[in-house]
Design brief:
The complex is a heterodimer. Chain A is an alpha/beta fold. Chain A is built from 8 helices and 7 strands. Chain A has a single domain (about 5-170), classed as Aconitase, domain 4. A 7-stranded mixed barrel of chain A has the order 1-2-3-4-7-6-5. In chain A, strand 5 (about 135-140) and strand 6 (about 145) form a beta hairpin. Chain A is globular. Chain B is about 30% helix and about 15% strand. In chain B, helix 6 links the parallel strand 11 (about 170-180) and strand 12. In chain B, helix 2 packs across helix 5 (about 155-160) and helix 6 runs parallel beside helix 8. The chains are: A alpha/beta, B alpha/beta. Chains A and B meet through helix 4, helix 6, helix 7 and helix 8 of A and strand 3, helix 2, helix 3, helix 5 and strand 10 of B. The complex binds iron/sulfur cluster. Iron/sulfur cluster binds next to helix 12 of chain B. Iron/sulfur cluster (SF4) binds next to helix 12 of chain B.
């Protein structure tokens, strides 16, 4: 994975709360077996409306999504982060995220930036009024900047685990495989009654 | 210090603690051992692909079990399927499980079913375990006093490769349900009422322990229904301390321990309780006797009222975000504020899913339907949660009851819960559904879902509008 230390770019304001994963990408897209190619599924139903913000020409090329609380609630489908990534987003700014979704974003190199509601509201206003307004999500320092919104070095939260992996571009499986001895040691202590699958 | 059940189970599985210095540097979160990894066809193909690309193997194929549920047609079809994409996904799953040595219950096999239904049925989910699956409703399995949660595909790949998961320890929440549910009020009504009370974000970041007399009185099927929807309250998972009800369910199941091992397991399982005086980070207390049969009116499960209630006026919500959500929900649902819930006409009834697709649920619905007929405008589906549930239901004649009432009796799968396998609700019409999500489009484009219990779904099928069983003339 490539390190992600900061994301700077224009933003798409999506002023809704509780945006669920069925809206981010409808279930029929999950019949695919590939990891990429989900861009057209992103917000598919809302995009049928030509005035939907993501359809506006002045929003094309935006890399940051600014949205409402509890973003990504619903299913654990990672197709949702894949769709956001394939569309070109690199960071999502929201007052809060659904738990599983927040954990999934960094696996696709996306930054879940959870900021104070008034900061998100300021970004929402500024980026709604001015599609060219630039937002910076500084991952290394966990701060947000948006001159058009009067936002300067406002902190956002990003858990240490995600921060460490994003900034260093680490593959989590490699990190864990380095602990194979400890995993094996735990396996020797597991009770004998625990159930098993019929491995073939 | 006194420990909660969730923390006690968590501690038993920690391999490396957050903050520890290991070969890969400072650990950013706990590394947790996974006792059982369940897989379905939708969220696993990219994970196997990732393993293959990196030349990795599955560390513990013997702790992994897979089935096909989301994409399977429930009309009895077998491969090859007319839906080419679904057909390909099911074949890829068969190939992956064969290549990596994972037990698979494919379409058409006797063990096939919704993943969260077959795990308990086989006795694969036992108290004190950690269980993961690439599916948010894995929370269902917490009903056994296990920590069970949904993960994304990258994490599925991580678990396949390492049998562990890196995760920050969730905080804890106690939802205590005192008293007793009134007759005709079910576990589904209770779990909907809890979400309506604490909100869709009320459990965010927590493992919810459901406790109290009303929870202890529930059979395992009802406990699974309650834990199933913990995720709809935003929680990572829900769990319920194991007790004699749990042990009775497990005894004699195919993968349950036997003989001396069973006795040893029991001794251990009986210790799995939240210690007196243990503190939870959050608490909510619910009076079970105040819960009425519930119906959802909006597009998230928290937007729910009693069946005696009416569609609320968005202006009545003090919180601007909730008000805006209610306005959007009513626009999508085509409902006017003040409409009595009983006045909502329905086109479709779905009884099934991992929330309410177990034998007890089918029995309850059949109890309402016996000697009655489905209303002329309603299409009604009964979809057993697993092939085993289907066999048991047929052995006691429930299929005949459903058929005589005018229901379609289907094969097991996720069916109309997810609207991607051919079973959908017609656009712009209303359904009474025993599933768990009423999101826009969940049951098909434009579908307007009302979440209800099996009894309420059956009664609604008979009257042609939302109704509870007590409304029916006897
Ligand atoms: S029945 Fe519905 S909620 Fe349950 S696993 Fe299937 S799609 Fe998911």
């Amino acid at each position: 994975m490539d390190p992600v230390t900061r994301v700077t770019g224009r933003a798409v304001p999506l002023d809704r709360g509780d945006v669920d994963t069925d809206q981010i990408i409808p279930a029929p897209w999950m019949k695919r077996v590939e990891r990429t190619g989900y861009a057209d599924g992103l917000f598919e139903k809302w995009r049928a409306d030509p005035s939907f913000v993501l359809n506006r020409p002045e929003r094309s090329g935006a890399t940051i999504l600014v949205t409402g609380p509890n973003f990504g609630c619903g299913s654990s489908r990672e197709h949702a982060p894949w769709a956001l990534r394939d569309h070109g987003f690199r960071a999502i700014v929201a007052p809060s995220f659904a738990d599983i979704f927040r954990g999934n974003l960094p696996n696709s190199g996306l930054v879940p930036a959870e900021a104070a509601p008034d900061v998100v509201a300021a970004l929402m206003r500024a980026t709604t009024d001015d599609p060219a307004a630039t937002v910076t999500v500084d991952v290394a320092s966990r701060t947000l900047d948006c001159p058009a919104a009067g936002v300067r070095a406002e902190p956002f939260s990003l858990d240490d685990s995600a921060h460490h992996r994003l900034v260093n571009g680490l593959d989590e499986i490699d990190l864990t495989l380095a602990l194979a001895d400890r995993i094996a040691a735990h396996e020797r202590t597991r009770p004998a009654w625990l159930p098993k699958g019929r491995s073939t | 210090m006194a420990t909660t059940l969730a923390d006690a189970i968590w501690d038993r599985h920690v391999i490396e603690r957050a903050g520890a210095h290991g070969p890969a540097g400072r650990a950013s979160a706990d590394l947790l051992y996974v006792d059982l990894h369940l897989l379905h066809e939708l969220t696993s193909p990219q994970a196997f692909e990732g393993l293959r690309a990196a030349g990795r193997s599955v560390r513990r194929p013997d702790l992994s079990v897979a089935t096909a549920d989301h994409n399977v047609p429930t009309d009895g079809s077998r491969l090859p399927l007319a839906d080419r994409a679904a057909d390909r996904q099911l074949r890829v799953q068969i190939d992956n499980c064969r290549e990596f040595g994972v037990e698979l219950h494919p379409l058409g096999s006797p063990g096939q079913g919704v993943v969260h239904v077959i795990g308990p049925e086989l006795g694969l989910v036992q108290p004190g375990m950690t269980v993961v699956c690439g599916d948010s409703h894995t929370a269902t399995l917490g009903a056994f006093g296990a920590i069970a949660f949904g993960i994304g595909t990258s994490q599925v790949e991580h678990v396949l490769a390492t049998q562990t998961i890196r995760m920050a320890r969730p905080s804890t929440m106690a939802v205590t349900v005192n008293g007793a549910l009134r007759p005709g009020v079910t576990a589904k009504d209770l779990t909907l009422a809890v979400i309506a009370r604490i909100g869709t974000g009320g459990g965010t970041g927590t493992l919810i322990e459901y406790r109290g007399a009303a929870i202890e009185a529930l059979p395992m099927s009802g406990r699974m229904t309650v834990c199933n929807m913990a995720i709809e309250a935003g929680a990572r998972a829900g769990l319920i301390a194991p007790d004699d009800t749990t042990f009775a369910y497990l005894e004699g199941r195919e993968r349950s321990p036997r003989g001396a091992l069973w006795e040893r397991a029991l001794d251990d399982w009986r210790t799995l309780r939240t210690e007196p005086g243990a503190a939870f980070d959050r608490e909510a207390v619910i009076d079970a006797s105040a819960v009425a049969p519930q119906v959802s009116w909006g597009t998230n499960p928290g937007q729910t009222v009693g069946v005696d209630g009416a569609v609320p006026d968005p202006a009545s919500f003090a919180d601007p975000a909730e008000r805006a959500a209610a306005e959007r929900a009513l626009a999508y649902m085509g409902l006017a504020p003040g409409t009595a819930m009983r006045d909502v006409p329905i086109s479709t009834v779905f009884i099934g899913s991992c929330t309410n697709g177990r034998l007890d649920d089918l029995r309850a619905a059949a109890g309402v339907l016996r000697g009655r007929r489905v209303h002329g405008r309603v299409r009604a589906l009964a979809v057993p949660g697993s092939s085993e549930v289907k066999r048991q239901a047929e052995a006691e004649g429930l299929d005949a009851v459903f058929r005589a009432a005018g229901f379609e009796w289907r094969s097991s799968g996720c069916s109309m819960c997810v609207g991607m396998n051919g079973d959908t609700v017609p656009p712009g019409t209303h359904s009474a559904s025993t599933s768990n999500r009423n999101f826009e489009g969940r049951q098909g484009p434009g579908a307007r879902t009302h979440l209800v219990s099996p009894e309420t779904a059956a009664a609604s099928a008979v009257t042609g509008h939302l109704a509870c069983a007590a409304d029916l003339p006897s």
